[in-house]
Backbone:
């Protein structure tokens, strides 16, 4: 073991003792790049460097640590805070030991121990934390400090409202795209040609792929590389540079005639048939394309190889080679035409997205990245940016660097290269200390543009440009020896076969002390039920037994196999949990996709094993959320019978089916088809049967005799009446809060579901309550508007964690986590078919833009010029597949279990099962009995009613202090509505003057009134205020786009550590002709200049803009609801 530990640490490629490794890794004065295996303590090293830097006297604000997720950033902050608290309370010996672990010599550690004890107090008194951010949060900070002109040049909305999920905007994006296509004859021709050739679904997948890679398409287009990413036929052969492929083929006419004569004298039937067909085609004077297809069919096979029966004819062989060359040229030309059509359409789809974002003041992650690249890489801004950053930043630390994209690296490189060379390089400042840590073996996010080759580029830069050291650690503190032996064996064998590279065998700190340690496999028995399923699947329809489809579900062999695998895993976990004392929270079950995990969840539920899938899912997929929305629907629209019926059957009311049928009969609803047919007498008499008059379920419930209703319906009527009276007076959040408490919702849901599901079901309800406040800033003041907004959006249910439950995770979701027992599910999945709608990107990490971005029609038959690029892409996919295997296996601390669902089709040769099954002995767990899911019953207790207290007269208050909360809320809603209408009216959809704006203004006013729940009186006041402002001679010029040099609404700026938001910021020509800035603040008050707090607020706004635009005049003014412009300062 000691030899393994020694060999696991290298510095600049040379083996080093562990102590020397951590001495350099944790030294904040040295720039280093660390490649560390799973479980080596990468985050520990990063936070240790922060601790050491703080001990050296560095101010917290001079340290920036960057990672990729908010969760990881939060864990870093938490670890640093815990260490500081621990060292403040611990003993002197503990502090000295901790510093020695972090690379200090004993004497140095003893000298620094007192400072370490007081470090927590020093940071608390200073009041400034260490900057620990995600990449995108850091980039956003840079853009908030950037000049407005740069944002305008990049087409980035100055409001910088981050859009994290564009899926909810996709319907509007597609509408804008289709409108532009219909308006442009060339784009419409491209679209129709693609639909005719490839089909609508394939074109949709291509366009979505282009939308996902919009950064790459933009950069390639800006450099003039996009349209030429797929070359013409000349890339296949120089002969096609002077003549098109069919022209080259037409020149072969004489040789074809000679071949027809030769083959006509041939000895076999194939020759004579080919001769006849060629001769007839030549005589018929067919078009070149038709003639080519005929000749191709006679000289080449379906796989485009020469026909063997013609091999005895040298002329036939030579012409077959010529035809094959022409075919490759034609395929290349078709690929080029397809690519260019898709490129043009994709750029239009991206433009539609950009217009929508800019109109709403939104930016996405890609905007932040390209904006940061422009800020850090622009020659004119570089000095200013570096000076600003140098004034605060001395240490840069980046975690999980293998997940960095080429664009993110280019932004970092543009900045860090200024420090390249001795003494800080071109920055003229002290060299920046850079710490980069990651593991290329754990790079599994290529779908998010992560590029493991970026790690190598950063490693070379830090070593050569910053004079740093390159460290590597292959020693884990997580995995048991048996687990690590399997990891080493699998990856070493893949490397031996040429499928993997740069893998070094790992060693471990863990001893063989865990009773559960092992590597086992779960598999179906030969000749078992799954083999029978395969036999059923191969049976013909005639052999299949008749199935009563209304009562019996379809027998799907694939689902049966998944269920069988899930049953084996559930039985194995039951044996470990009930027989060997394993806690459910110590188990991970990992799969590449979520579908197998959903099947496993049902099996675990049947055995009563608590489990959780802590990954985001659609909010509206949660059953209790659907129940609650149905209730809100019924309260907002009492005539909506289906919503009310849905709500009554939910756990909140628990009305029985008999009670619902009783309500249906009372409402006169049709129960049988015959009831819908009117009597002949009624039709002939022209009279309507009054007994069949239909009322709503709501009306029937209120009109029913209470004694005739079941208790659940009586309770429902009482609660619904109370809530319906408040629906117009309460905000959605207030109404939901009342439903939650008065209906005892959480307890009733908990009573109806198994114990293993309670936490997840209650979490979904709490998430909906939170959304009532958070959705669009809580601006929905009516239940109707809130429900509509929820149903129109693809909102995700936030992930939640449950400590003592089996975690069902995808491999991507498990990255960075560990568990005592890990099960790899569905490890022998059939390989996916080659895609027919692919987008290839060739982006060398040293270049600031892609070299090639190419749409591909078929991965199995790429055009000749893209065959090599496709081969490289497939190699990268294979590498990532092995990276995913490495990540999955290294989550296990003690036991690793391999599982698969058997299939009639053999799994792929490189599947996880194929690579690992020989290393793992079989495990056959005992069958588990179904659990009693009612064992943990929840009882609902009714508390006695407290009689109302005697009314007591209210204490009188001074009249000038009596301001009703409702009135304040009304004023706030009116003010928000005025802000919103002015923002809309001055945006892309409302710009214009006079008649043009007057036509759209009523619609904007109506939309705002509905959004903020304004009654007729306040709606009229809103209209007067907006018309007064837009019609004012003083105010109107600030909303006239034709006279403004720049304008933005709700503009965010940072000033002295605070985030501000300006109602409106414009730049226009001053009276002297030069440009000047105006900061405008909207107020309902007719004299805001008399309020000191308003004056101070506007002064701060003006100072913030003045700092961003030094040397330029900045003026500020209030705009009141009376249409007055009141300049201040």
Residues:
């Amino acid at each position: 073991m000691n030899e393994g530990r020694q060999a696991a640490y290298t510095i600049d490629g040379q083996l080093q003792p562990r102590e020397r490794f951590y001495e350099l890794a944790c030294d904040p004065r040295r720039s280093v790049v660390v490649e560390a295996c799973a479980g080596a303590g990468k985050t520990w090293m990063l936070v240790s460097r922060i601790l050491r830097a703080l001990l050296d006297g560095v101010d917290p604000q001079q340290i920036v640590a960057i990672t990729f997720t908010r969760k990881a950033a939060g864990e870093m902050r938490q670890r640093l805070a815990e260490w500081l608290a621990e060292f403040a309370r611990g003993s002197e010996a503990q502090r000295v030991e901790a510093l020695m672990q972090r690379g200090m010599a004993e004497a140095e550690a003893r000298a620094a121990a007192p400072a370490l004890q007081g470090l927590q107090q020093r940071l608390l008194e200073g009041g400034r934390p260490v900057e620990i951010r995600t990449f995108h949060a850091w980039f956003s900070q840079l853009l908030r400090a950037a000049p407005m002109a740069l944002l305008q040049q990049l087409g980035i909305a100055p409001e910088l409202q981050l859009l994290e999920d564009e899926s909810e905007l996709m319907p509007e994006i597609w509408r804008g795209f289709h409108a532009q296509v219909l308006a442009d004859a060339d784009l419409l021709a491209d679209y129709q040609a693609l639909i005719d050739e490839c089909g609508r679904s394939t074109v949709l997948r291509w366009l979505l792929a282009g939308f996902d890679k919009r950064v790459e398409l933009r950069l390639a287009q800006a450099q003039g590389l996009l349209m030429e990413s797929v070359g013409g036929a000349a890339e296949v052969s120089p002969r096609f540079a002077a003549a098109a492929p069919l022209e080259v083929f037409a020149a072969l006419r004489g040789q074809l005639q000679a071949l027809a004569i030769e083959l006509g004298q041939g000895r076999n039937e194939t020759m004579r048939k080919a001769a006849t067909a060629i001769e007839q085609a030549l005589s018929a004077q067919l078009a070149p394309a038709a003639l080519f297809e005929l000749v191709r069919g006679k000289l080449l096979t379906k796989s485009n190889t020469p026909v063997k029966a013609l091999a005895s004819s040298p002329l036939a062989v030579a012409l077959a080679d010529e035809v094959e060359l022409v075919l490759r040229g034609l395929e290349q030309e078709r690929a080029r035409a397809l690519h260019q059509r898709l490129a043009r359409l994709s750029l239009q789809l991206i433009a539609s997205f950009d217009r929508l974002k800019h109109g709403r003041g939104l930016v996405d992650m890609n905007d932040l990245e390209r904006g940061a690249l422009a800020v850090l890489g622009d020659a004119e801004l570089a000095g200013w940016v570096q000076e600003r950053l140098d004034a605060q930043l001395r240490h840069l630390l980046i975690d999980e660097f293998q997940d960095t994209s080429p664009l993110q690296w280019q932004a970092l490189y543009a900045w860090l290269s200024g420090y390249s060379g001795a003494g800080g390089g071109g920055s003229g400042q002290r060299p920046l200390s850079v710490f980069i840590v990651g593991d290329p073996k754990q790079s599994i996010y290529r779908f998010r543009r992560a590029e493991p080759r970026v790690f190598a580029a950063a490693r070379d830069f830090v070593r050569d440009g910053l004079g740093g050291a390159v460290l590597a650690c292959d020693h884990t503190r997580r995995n048991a020896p048996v687990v690590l032996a399997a990891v080493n064996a699998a990856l070493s064998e893949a490397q031996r076969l040429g499928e993997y590279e740069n893998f070094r065998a790992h060693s471990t700190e863990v001893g063989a002390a865990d009773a559960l340690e092992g590597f086992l496999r779960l598999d179906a028995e030969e000749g078992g039920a799954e083999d029978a399923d395969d036999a059923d699947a191969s049976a013909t329809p005639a052999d299949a037994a008749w199935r009563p489809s209304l009562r019996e579900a379809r027998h799907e062999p694939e689902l049966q196999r998944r269920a069988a695998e899930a049953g084996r895993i559930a039985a194995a976990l039951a044996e470990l949990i009930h027989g060997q004392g394993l806690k459910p929270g110590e188990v991970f079950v990992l799969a590449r996709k979520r579908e197998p995990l959903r099947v496993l969840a049902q099996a675990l539920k049947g055995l009563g094993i608590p489990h959780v899938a802590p990954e985001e899912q659609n909010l509206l997929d949660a059953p209790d959320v659907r129940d609650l929305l149905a209730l809100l629907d019924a309260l907002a629209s009492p005539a909506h019978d289906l919503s009310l019926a849905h709500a009554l059957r939910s756990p909140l009311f628990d009305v029985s089916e008999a009670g619902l049928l009783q309500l249906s009969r009372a409402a006169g609803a049709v129960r049988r088809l015959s009831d819908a047919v009117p009597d002949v007498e009624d039709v002939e008499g022209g009279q309507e049967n009054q007994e069949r008059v239909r009322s709503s379920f709501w009306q029937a419930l209120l009109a029913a005799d209470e004694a005739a209703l079941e208790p659940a319906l009586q309770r429902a009527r009482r609660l619904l009446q109370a809530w319906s009276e408040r629906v117009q007076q309460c905000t959605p959040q207030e109404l939901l809060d009342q439903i939650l408490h008065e209906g005892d919702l959480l307890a009733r849901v908990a009573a109806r579901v198994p114990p293993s599901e309670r936490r997840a079901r209650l979490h979904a309800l709490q998430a909906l309550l939170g959304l009532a406040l958070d959705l669009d800033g809580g601006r929905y003041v009516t239940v109707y508007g809130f429900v509509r907004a929820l149903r129109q959006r693809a909102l995700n249910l936030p992930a939640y964690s449950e400590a003592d439950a089996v975690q069902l995770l995808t491999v991507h979701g498990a990255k960075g986590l560990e568990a005592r027992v890990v099960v790899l599910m569905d490890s022998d999945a059939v390989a996916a078919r080659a895609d027919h709608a692919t987008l290839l990107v060739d982006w060398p990490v040293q270049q600031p833009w892609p070299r090639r971005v190419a749409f591909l029609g078929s991965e199995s038959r790429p055009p000749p010029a893209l065959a090599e690029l496709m081969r490289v892409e497939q190699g990268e996919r294979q590498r990532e597949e092995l990276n995913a295997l490495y990540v999955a296996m290294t989550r296990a601390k003690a036991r690793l279990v391999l599982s698969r669902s058997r299939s009639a089709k053999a799994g792929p040769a490189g599947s996880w099962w194929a690579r690992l099954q020989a290393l793992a002995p079989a495990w056959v767990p005992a069958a588990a009995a179904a659990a009693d899911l009612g064992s943990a019953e929840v009882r609902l207790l009714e508390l006695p009613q407290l009689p109302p207290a005697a009314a007591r007269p209210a204490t009188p208050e001074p009249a000038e202090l009596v301001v009703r909360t409702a009135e304040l809320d009304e004023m706030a809603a009116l003010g928000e509505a005025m802000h919103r209408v002015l923002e809309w009216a001055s945006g892309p959809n409302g710009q214009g003057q006079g008649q043009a704006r007057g036509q759209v203004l009523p619609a904007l006013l109506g939309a705002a009134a509905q959004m903020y729940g304004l009654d007729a009186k306040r709606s009229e006041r809103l209209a007067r205020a907006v018309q007064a402002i837009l019609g004012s001679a003083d105010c109107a010029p600030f909303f006239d786009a034709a006279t403004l040099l720049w304008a933005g609404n709700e503009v965010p700026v940072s000033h002295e550590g605070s985030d501000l938001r300006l109602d409106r910021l414009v730049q226009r020509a001053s009276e002297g002709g030069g440009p000047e800035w105006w900061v405008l603040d909207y107020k309902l008050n007719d004299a805001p200049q008399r309020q000191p707090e308003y004056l101070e607020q506007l002064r701060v706004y003006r100072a913030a803009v003045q700092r961003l635009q030094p040397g330029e005049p900045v003026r500020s003014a209030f705009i009141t609801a009376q249409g007055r412009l009141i300049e201040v300062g």
About this structure: Confidence is low (pLDDT under 50) at residues 1-6, 670-678, 680-691, 949-966. The two ends are 74 Å apart (CA to CA).
